[in-house]
Structure formats: structure tokens, C-alpha cells
Amino acid sequence: MKEDIQQSENRLQEEIRAPLITQTYKRATEEQAENGCYEKKQNRCMVYLSTFVAVCGSFAFGSCAGYSSPTQSAIREDLNLSIAEFSLFGSILTFGAMIGAITSGPIADYIGRKGAMRMSSAFCVAGWFAIYFAQGALSLDIGRLATGYGMGVFSYVVPVFIAEIAPRDLRGALTTINQLMICCGVSVAFIIGTMLTWRTLALTGLIPCAILLFGLFIIPESPRWLAKIGHQKEFELALRRLRGKDADISEEAAEIQDYIETLEKLPKVNLFDLFQRRYLSSLIVGVGLMVFQQFGGINGICFYTGSIFESSGFPSDVGTIIYAIIQDVPITALGAVLIDRAGRKPLLLVSATGLVIGCILTGTSFYLKGHEIAVKGGPILAVTGILVYIGSFSIGMGAVPWVVMSEIYPINIKGAAGSLATLVNWFGAWACSYTFNFLMTWNSFGTFILYAAVNALSILFVIKIVPETKGRTLEQIQASINAS
Length: 484
Hints:
This protein has helices at 2-34, 45-66, 68-79, 83-132, 137-165, 171-193, 198-204, 206-215, 223-228, 232-243, 250-264, 277-295, 298-303, 305-312, 316-342, 344-370, 377-397, 400-408, 414-442, 444-464, 474-483. Mean pLDDT is 81; it is low at 12-40.
């Protein structure tokens, strides 16, 4: 009897131990999966190549944005343009981008992410040729409008494409490269624009477009878009190419398919349908981040950095060079490294706090100058404030809103919602850059305090409204937002 009891206890312990061992093994397997430690690892070469090809569009975006600054005097002299005519040439880029933003979502949904990038490249190529061959203001404006349209489409489709092809542990970093390459495009245009003629500089804008058009023949289409339009075979082939031939894609493919099937039961939406209760949370997050990104003063400050330095008494050329070399590209690259480690919300909070501090420092310098207090210290305070502002923007508020925007919208509304968010962004860019000089004429100190207040509100918005999306699949993110 004792032996029977002992054997029964042993069997009972074994039965209890077995599921515990299974759970432990399962947990260890999941941890290995999180760390990419499967025996059959994913081959991510195609993901990296696809990202590189896509961000050539971001570089083209930056080339368009940075073109007018180093060429202003040369174009005006060669073509005998007035200040008003050149101002129209510079500002019409933003109107083209707004048109591109309105149409970018439906175009990306109708002809695919790759098709939208091809079309955007074609507009940029046509625009650069129009500028190169321009003999008067009209041709210049048509070319600038065309490149602006290409910018508007690129600003939406590039981060969306990268988010849809990237593994969840790399999605934030890879999507942030979009903002990094925009900064690179602006910086390169500014630097080489001092060495090349304005017509030759226009031809350099064709290089990223050519690389993009060639690369699109090599990389796969977004698997999620292919699944959405019902191309099952192409969907599986694209996902296999992105994850590697030895990777197990069954779980990811099933999750995408289940989510697509759920969305197919929902009615198709237009711009007005976005304001339904079921989509309101994601719409508020995406559009709200774009509002705070632009109305915090970034385009006014960036467009007129030289005049800000000059007004504060600091040499404008020295300040601009320091800003371009130290603050822009390196800090954006740091943000790309941190976004998948620290998370989206921490970067946004750190960034917004830095924006508030930068505005207060710069505003204080103008206050001191206006009241003739600490005359020698005012210019140093101004340049410090501007560098803190630009650095803080580059590390978070510049790139993260585009990352979050590409993650939170369900695929059935991604086109319409993305177009709305991008339109709001470009309208904010125009409004901020247009009103900056008027605000500075009104009150320099008050201008920066106003921007500080907007950025302070963005901190509350991020804390209360914006979800953390690090380490989650797009389907998990969208399901949780809709559930909330």
C-alpha cells in the first residue's frame, strides 16, 4: 500500500510538472522569438533594401525643401525676378504638397504603395526638368508645384510602406529613417548649393528619384496592401521575400489575414466617415500629433533661423552652420536608435519638454535685448535656445508623429485618414511659416512664449491621449485603439 501511495504521488507530481515544463519551454521559446534567436532566423536583407529604396523618396523630399535657400540670389539675378515672384516660387511648394497630401491616401490604396512612389517620383522628375529649363517665373512655379506635389505624396506613402513591411522590433527605427533622410536631403542641398549653379543643383534632385524608380523593380509590394486587395498568392510571396525563405511566416500571415477579413466586414469609408465613433480615437491621435508638431513653431523657426540669430545679435552664418552640422542629422539618427528601445511616448515627452525650454530661452533673450539687460549674454542665450529647440524637435517630435501615424490607422481607413493627417501637417507648415514674421513684428518675446505654450499642451496630449506602440504588431495596435 505504501508503494502504491508513493507511485500515485509520483505520478501526480509528474502530471503537475509536465504542464509547468511545457509552459516554461513555451515561455523560453517566446523569449527566443522576441530576441530573434530561432534556429531559422529571419533574413532581413530584403527589409533593409526595401527601406533604403523607399527612403530615397524621403531624400528627394529633402532636396525639394532645401533647394530654394541657397539659390535665391542666383535665380533672382539670372531670371530678373522680383522678391514677390521668388516668394511665390518658394511658397508654392507647400501648396503642391497640400494637394499631394489630399490625394496620397486614395492613390496609395488604389495603385499600391509602390505605384504611389513611382507616380510621386515622376512628378518630381518632371518638376526638376521644368526648373532646369526655366526661362521665366511661370516655368519655375510649375516645376516647383510639381515637386511639391511629389513631396506631399512621399510624406505619406514612405512611412506607411516602411511600417507595413518592417518586423515589429525594427518598425520604429526603420520608419524614423524617413525623417533622417529628409534632414540629409535638406543639408546636402544647402551645402552643394553653395558650390553649384542653380540649374545644376536642380539636376542633382533627379538622382534620388532615379535610384527609387530603379529600386522599385527589385523590392516587393507591401504584403498588407496585397492582402487587402485579395491577391493571396502575391501576398504570401511578398511576405516570404521580406522575412527570408527559411523563416516561418505562418503565424504572421494568419494574423494579417484574420485582421483583413475582419476589416472587410466593415463598410468602405470616405473622409466624412472618419469621424465615426469607432475611428475617433485613432483619428484624434494622428491628427493631434500633426497639429502639435507644426503649430509648435518648427517651420517658422527653421525657415528664418538666420534672421533669428541676426535679430538677437548673433552672427547668422555661424549660427546656421552650427545648427546644420551639429543639431539636425546626428540627433535625428540618435532618435532612430532610441525609438524601439525607449519607446514612442518617452521620446515625444522628452522632445516636447526640450521644445518648451528652447522657446523660453530664445524668448528670454529677446526680452533681455528689448529691455537692454545683459546685452552680451542675450545672443548666446538665443543661439542656445534655438539649438535646444531644433535638437529636441529632431530627436522626437520631428519623426515620431509620422511613425505613430503609420501604425495606428486600420488599413480600411489608412488612405483617407493618412491623407487628412498629412493635409493638416502641410497646412500647419504653411500657416506657421506664413505668420512667423508677422508675429515677430508684433512681439518677439511673445512669439516664443506662444510657441512654448503650444508645446506645453503637447506634453499633456501625449500623456493623456497617445498610446505606446513599441513592440506590438500593427494589428494589435489598431485593435487596442479601436477597443478603447
